[in-house]
Structure formats: structure tokens, C-alpha cells
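Batch manifest, entry 17 of 40.
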Amino acid sequence: MDVQRLLILFGAILLVAGLAWPFLSRLGLGRLPGDIVIERDGFAIYIPIVTSLLISVGLSLLFWLFRRGE
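Output type: C-alpha cells
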């Protein structure tokens, strides 16, 4: 696959993820137990560890299924 098609594919994936984010946030993604939130006066740090793990597992399974179908 050439670089142009790969960049278009990644752009389309980011567009779909951006459009779907309001719906995904209703599912609780981003505020799961295990996600770290530190709030102090004047700043807040948010580290979505469990959310990142779930997304990683989901994408890994999806890519595995696509690769298996070839």
C-alpha cells in the first residue's frame, strides 16, 4: 500500500472517530475505573489507562480478523 492511500485511510479513521466520539462518551469510555484523574488548583491531569487498553484490545482484534480473512 502506498503512502498516499495510507494517509487517506488514517485521515478517514480519525474523521469517523471524531464524529463518533459524542456517542462513545455516552458509553462511559474515557471515565472508566482505572483511569487516573488528578485535579489541583489551576490544572487537571487526565490519564485514560483503562480506556486506552480497551481501545487497543478492540483494534488488535479487529486487525487480527481482517488479516485472517486474507
